[in-house]
Specification:
The protein is of the alpha/beta class. It has three domains: 13-119, no CATH class; 123-216, Arc Repressor Mutant, subunit A; 222-374, Toll/interleukin-1 receptor homology (TIR) domain (Rossmann fold), CATH 3.40.50.10140. It contains twelve helices and 20 strands. It has helices at 35-42, 67-83, 112-117, 125-136, 169-181, 205-218, 233-249, 266-276, 307-318, 331-334, 339-342, 359-374; strands at 13-17, 20-25, 29-34, 48-54, 60-66, 89-92, 108-111, 145-148, 158-160, 185-191, 198-203, 224-228, 253-256, 279-283, 301-302, 305-306, 322-328, 346-349, 351-352, 355-356. It has a five-stranded mixed beta sheet. Strands 13-12-14-17-18 form a five-stranded parallel beta sheet, sandwiched between helices. The protein has a four-stranded mixed beta sheet with strand order 9-8-11-10. α4 packs across α6. It is globular, with a radius of gyration of 23 Å.
């Protein structure tokens, strides 16, 4: 099939795979819908979908959700999640989240009610729309952004009206006009007469100031956690997987930059991911390969340390984000910890083949530290 189940985009792909339906859509991103949820929504008769919610006595009550409202909210939430690189998930009935098979890769389960409840309240729509506009381009001042009614053009920073949380083009126009009147955007071209809808604009200095302020608040609800580390598979495969497991079990999504697809300058993506993250885990492991002398070691080690990890941890601290420190417990790595960070609590680990020693304890220690400092993550199942 070649139509998105949520937004009806005709260039999307929708295919059945066992007991689930997989969607790849330029608007909604990549997601999966379990077969029972997909079939029940599709078969909904009348104007409402009956959403079952469990009761304490093992019974169910049913929430009546207008079908049109369900699809409108779902396609807008999905569009925003795609912009935030949070589009790999499995939509399920809320009461079945803990009954399903474990997540595969970065795909995780979201209850359909939880998903729909993330739709903004009326007073939040303008701010959420502005945040989404800020995510569209590269973040360079003066860059033109395009909004169309349905289409998305890959060659320019563009999206359709779903990222504005607009039900139709008339509502989208009112939202953009309001942003213009508040001096958050500078309109270059606009045409929304008849069946045509196209706006071209850029975010003003006041708009970027507003976005920065909103992000400081939004970061508190972010589900991302950025991992700054050495990417050498030989030395860090075990700790990479342990860090990811600890973050996942804390209720957050681990982001390792070499696992994130990108087509732009890598440091732009690094900065964007740190900006979006709730916190950062920095592993300062730094091994001098083959016992080389400091003056002959590889050019990624400067002054005995890996500069990239220090840069990313420092940038995160500058953004007032919590940074958790880890490091391999050996003389080569420990002696390279810079004096300025040795006073900061560091969780040490030791290699054990392709894993690490006392892996479960390390994971639990880091999880408890995360919970103590920033709280349980939004992905944590209740």
């Amino acid at each position: 099939m070649s139509e998105c189940f949520l937004c009806k985009n005709e260039t999307a792909t929708l295919r059945e795979s066992g007991y689930e339906w997989r969607i790849i859509c330029p608007n909604c991103g990549k997601l999966v819908i379990t077969d029972d949820l997909y079939s029940d929504i599709k078969a909904a008769t009348g104007e409402c979908f009956r959403l079952p919610l469990p009761e304490p006595d093992n019974g169910y009550r049913y929430l009546r959700v207008p079908v049109a409202d369900l699809f409108f909210k779902a396609r807008c939430v999905a569009a925003e999640r795609k912009l935030k690189d949070q589009d790999e998930y499995i939509l399920v009935y809320d009461y079945k989240k803990n009954e399903l098979l474990p997540e595969v890769g970065n795909f995780y389960h979201i209850g359909i009610k939880e998903f729909l409840d993330s739709f903004p309240a009326t007073h939040e729509v303008l701010d959420r729309a502005l945040l989404n506009l800020g995510r569209l381009g590269s973040g360079i001042f003066g860059e033109s952004i395009y909004i169309f009614e349905t289409e998305v053009k890959k060659e320019i920073p563009s999206a359709n009206i779903n990222i504005l949380y607009a039900s139709n083009k008339n509502v989208a126009a009112k939202i953009l006009i309001n942003l213009k009147e508040n001096n958050f955007i500078e309109v270059e071209e606009m045409n929304y007469q008849g069946s045509f809808f196209e706006w071209k604009f850029y975010i003003s200095a006041k708009g970027w100031d507003r976005i920065a302020g909103l992000k400081n608040t939004a970061d508190k609800y972010s589900e991302k956690a950025f991992i700054a580390m050495w990417f050498d598979v030989k030395h860090t495969r075990g700790i990479r997987e342990a860090l990811k497991k600890a973050i996942l079990s804390s209720g957050y999504l681990p982001i390792v930059i070499d696992e994130v697809p990108h087509a732009d300058f890598i440091m732009n993506r690094v900065i964007n991911e740190i900006n979006e993250a709730r916190f950062v885990v920095a592993d300062f492991t730094c091994i001098n390969e083959d016992n080389k002398k400091d003056d002959k070691e590889d050019d990624k080690i400067k002054g005995g340390v890996r500069g990239g990890v220090y840069f990313e941890a420092g940038y995160a601290r500058g953004q007032r984000k919590k940074v958790f420190h880890t490091c391999r417990k050996d003389s080569a790595s420990e002696k390279r910890l810079h004096f300025d960070i040795k006073q900061i609590n560091t969780l040490f680990w030791e290699p054990d083949g392709e894993s690490i020693k006392d892996r479960d304890k390390f994971i639990d220690d880091l999880k408890q530290a995360i919970w103590a400092e920033v709280g349980k993550g939004p992905r944590l199942r209740k």
